[in-house]
Design brief:
The structure is a single chain. With 481 residues, this protein is an all-alpha fold. It is built from 20 helices and two strands. Strands 1-2 form a two-stranded antiparallel sheet. Strand 1 and strand 2 form a beta hairpin. It is globular. The C terminus is likely disordered.
């Protein structure tokens, strides 16, 4: 029985990562109908997405740090439980206030991936660590690509609550499997949890992401948005000062400032921007009316199916990315991945009228995302002590989230300024979409340059010994990769 549980650790953790991504995307097909179903205005309904984004961004580094200190399995189970309870509340209500609160609970699942990566580092034999980490990091894209068409099918052919009943059942299954198959990691970093640092980071991130996500709706120069950005700068400045003085900080800023940690974080932000533009713009473009001259007028189900090959590609290529990292190093894999993303956007600029070319371009972008996302956690694992892997990977995932939020705002700004009237309604022009692709492709090239700037590994055996035997074995495996 123990041997069976050990063999299922990676699949069970990957299943949890896929569930997390599915939970983030299932509400998307519902957005056009939620005002009618809940009696709430569209501006309020949009908070079913914003609430998940905000809570996920805030809780990911916080729960990652808690996992390093109190046990990664324990915090992982808590995150999965919150996700499942949130889904159950969504299934039981049609009240928009309860829905938004429940979606905020589901945001806790964003911590599943960094916690799982840290567990894999601590528990797996060295030979299996690289491929398992690559798979775990790719689950974000896999779940998003699978969740959209499946949720659209449920919404189209069943009551919308059925979708949340299905995700509740899947969440309960993932929680039970994780409780059974995942062992608690012995690697801990003792100390008192930095509650003040957690509150400061939460306040700063809420101001930042709320301003970015609502800027297009409230107006970028409105007093509310300007006030949020000013508050963000002031709060995060005070937070950085507090973190530098804290004995056990929530985020080790001195460690994070080192090039081997800072540059992967910067690349994660840029890659998150470049990755998100693919699914965001593709979904809008193929659903555009045929009267535009370029739109295909596809349904949300057909749109999800257009993105499905990318998700399948991510699943199949995660072992390949681990082999590339083993042969050339994760820095090369990261640079190659971001370059492939840029190539995908070049294909989109060349032809975004034919459905088969749209699918090819989107799949190429997904291929590059697989390579990039699989390399990022490996770079972090090499650069930080074993006792900080969950919190450091949590920050890396946070940077991806911020990149996605900025991408959403930037794409919306581009498309709003490039519209034409179709049937009396403003619709983005093809030129606007191509500009969005060019913008995302340019960011991917900048990410490639940042990846190539990441220093190599100067780690000595003495440094590895100071991290403990478990962390040393993992580092040696990663460096040999």
């Amino acid at each position: 029985m123990t041997a069976l549980r050990d063999r299922l650790t990676v699949p069970v953790l990957a299943f949890g990562g896929i569930l997390m991504a599915v939970m983030q995307t299932v509400v998307v097909p519902l957005l056009p109908d939620l005002p009618r179903l809940t009696g709430a205005p569209a501006s309020t309904v949009s908070w079913t997405v914003t609430a998940t984004l905000l809570s996920g961004a805030v809780l990911t580094p916080v729960l990652g740090r808690a996992g390093d200190m109190y046990g990664k399995r324990r915090v992982l189970l808590m995150a999965l439980a919150l996700m499942t309870v949130g889904s159950l509340l969504c299934a039981l209500t049609s009240d928009i206030g309860v829905l938004i609160a429940a979606r905020a609970l589901q945001g806790a699942a964003a911590a599943v991936v960094p916690l799982s990566i840290s567990i894999l580092r601590d528990e797996l034999p060295p030979a299996k660590t690289g491929s398992a980490v690559a798979l775990m990091s790719s689950t974000v894209g896999i779940g998003a690509a699978l969740g959209l068409p499946l949720a659209a099918l449920v919404v189209q052919y069943a009551d919308w609550h059925a979708m949340f009943w299905a995700t509740t059942a899947l969440g309960a299954l993932g929680l039970a499997l994780a409780w059974w198959a995942v062992r608690e990691s012995p690697v801990r970093e003792p100390g008192r949890f930095d509650t003040l640092g957690a509150l400061g980071l939460a306040a700063g991130l809420v101001c930042l992401l709320l301003g970015v996500s609502q800027g297009g709706t409230w107006g970028w120069t409105s007093p509310r948005i300007v006030g949020l950005f000013v508050a963000c700068v002031l709060i995060l400045a005070l937070w950085c000062r507090q973190q530098l003085r804290a004995e056990r900080p929530l985020v080790d800023l001195k460690l994070a400032a080192r090039p081997r940690v800072a540059l992967p974080h910067i690349t994660a932000l840029l890659t998150g921007f470049a990755f998100y533009g693919n699914s965001l713009v593709t979904a809008q473009l193929v659903q555009a009316p045929e009267a535009t001259g370029y739109g295909l007028g596809l349904s949300i189900v057909a749109t999800g199916l257009c993105l499905l090959p990318g998700g399948v590609t991510m699943l199949l290529l995660s072992p390949v990315s681990a082999r590339i990292s083993a042969a050339r190093g994760p820095r090369v894999t990261l640079a190659l991945g971001t370059a492939v993303i840029a190539l995908g956007y070049l294909l989109r600029i060349m032809d975004s009228r034919d459905l088969w070319m749209i699918i090819v371009g989107a799949t190429v972008c997904a291929t590059g995302t697989t390579l990039a996302y699989s390399a990022l956690p490996t770079l972090i694992l090499r650069a930080v002590p074993a006792g900080q892997t969950a919190s450091a990977n949590g920050v890396n995932v946070l940077m991806r989230t911020i990149g996605q939020a900025v991408c959403s705002a930037a794409v919306a700004a581009v498309l709003v300024h490039h519209t034409s009237l179709v049937g009396g309604a403003p619709v983005p022009t093809l030129h606007g979409y191509l500009l969005a692709f060019a913008m995302a492709g340019t960011v991917a090239l900048v990410a490639c340059a940042a990846a190539l700037s990441i220093p190599g590994d100067p780690a000595s055996r003495g440094t590895r010994r100071s991290r403990g035997r478990t962390g040393a074995r993992r580092d040696e495996a990663l460096e040999g990769a």
